Amino acid sequence: MEEKDFVIIGTGPAGISAAVTAAKSGVDVTLIGEDPRMGGQIFRQIIPPLYSQTHYVDTQNEKIFNNLSEEKKKVHLQFLSKTLVWGIFDDKVLATDNKDHPLIKAKKLLISEGAYEAPVAFPGWTLPGVITLGGTQILLKSQGLIPRGRTLVAGTGPLLYYTASQLVKNGANVVGVLEASSLFKWMNWTFRLIRAPKLLWKGIQYLTLLKKRRIPIYYNHVVAKAEGTESLEKVIFTKDNNNWEPQEGTEKTLDVDTLCLNFGFIPSTIFTHMAGCEHEFDPTLRGWIPTLNNKLETSKEGIFVAGDCNGIGGVKKAFVEGQIAGTEIALQLGQVSKPETHSFLSRLQKKNSRLNWYQKFLKDIYAFRPGLLKLLTPETFICRCEEVDFKTITNTLENGAWSLDQIKRLTRMGMGRCQGRFCFPTVLGILSKYYSQKELNQLDFSTRPPAKPLPLKELI
Amino acid sequence: MMKRLKQVKRGEPFNIQVDNEFLTAYHGETLATVLLSAGKKIMRKSLKNKNPRGYYCGMGICNECLVKLEDETRVRACQTLAEPSMKIKTGA
Ligand SMILES: Cc1cc2nc3c(=O)[nH]c(=O)nc-3n(C[C@H](O)[C@H](O)[C@H](O)COP(=O)(O)OP(=O)(O)OC[C@H]3O[C@@H](n4cnc5c(N)ncnc54)[C@H](O)[C@@H]3O)c2cc1C
Ligand code: FES
To answer: Which terminus, N or C, of chain B has the lesser number of Cβ atoms within 10 Å?
Structure first.
């Protein structure tokens, strides 16, 4: 088996910045990413030989990326692209689908696998044509595609306005934006953005563009239902209250070809769970956060976490966290000495805590409001893969099951190919109504490899 | 369902066979791009109820975009690059 000093999973801003930081100190770094190019979600680049003069990455953050790319050229890194990590076994052994590097043992491991879109189940959410806003962005950034036909953007948060205006600028027919929160709430949140005038200014620009193009923004509205025979044709939406609970008798219908949804993001903790690290459950995220010390090391010695999989904190935080982990790992591997890094590390830690307000800001905006659970009808699928509906879940709960593993065994929920990523949050939302934080923390969550299903060939 | 932006330069087109028709593809495009640009939204059928499913997360984790290759392996259309002479089946 290959042995490596420092292995990083994920090539987003967190992974790259850790790689560059450690490599600058002389650490032998192996960076593994599933995508053909580095960048992660926010800096997702067009896949060559497709070529675009315009970058669909926003300009303010592009600077961070360009600097990173320049620094990356100056250091030596082993970059395994198009390589999927599908399992973590005892003591930092990684299994990948890369034929030349199937098993890698890491002395130090950084997990920076990012986050994924928070699912919200409602009748019709499995119809083709209902897609995530992240998925919409990926098509635009890496493939140069925009939706054809009538497009509705819905959910909550700043990404709605950013993406809607990006789509409109590129000629898409956006028929509206549904925002679950109220205008009043937004005015309050906007006030907090005074600390980040550039972001505030960008937000104003997006809203001005949408207004100029007469695209209606429906505050306090949620999608209640998606309808269509073989794919999406109609969206029924309603007013909601501050708990995001749909209000009966306020239904409106729109003809829609593509519905792009975003209710925030959930940190990916598949690998930290697989590695046996400790976690804490966060009901507002409907997910877990790994427990870390101030150097971002988990409860398992030598395994570190940085970026979105440690709570959604935005690109700047991902970048700084990568630097902290990279520095600490260089220190632990003996490439730099403590006095050399002491002031650098404490500066980084201060910078990181200064960025906490933004993480808190995003957390407040996206915090799950249980009113959304009222969208579920007995027949709504909660688990897309195994087609387990709400009625089956409620029956199981009423019969006394309460741990995720029990529900899983009795219903097959979460046993499908997405590994529970798109059903656990809904069930955890339901469970949060019944159980205390302490009980939720004790919920068992077991994951087994593969983290992402492989074509059968790989496993034989 | 999706359209290709004119300002993005694509090289020489080639064809891939999807079910019983030929669809235009360009190097650098994923199977999902080829299908969605041709208006084909349905990529697989659900296991139990045979309901249509298609592109959802775009980042390789939902597996709703699975399509079948000639050798019967299933791949995620959003993560698999189109290559000349590929033959795929949807709705399986
Ligand atoms: C879908 C989506 C869209 C977003 N859009 C925006 C936006 O428009 N603007 C904005 O400000 N912020 C956006 N964000 C938030 C922003 O991406 C983050 O704040 C920041 O990019 C976090 O960086 P990261 O390095 O932690 O993770 P990411 O950038 O998500 O990088 C994680 C990397 O890990 C790789 N990976 C994951 N699992 C595996 C595996 N098993 N094997 C190999 N590699 C793996 C992924 O391919 C990816 O490259 C978005 C987030 C998501 C999830
Ligand atoms: S769209 Fe989710 S895996 Fe392809």
So the answer is: C
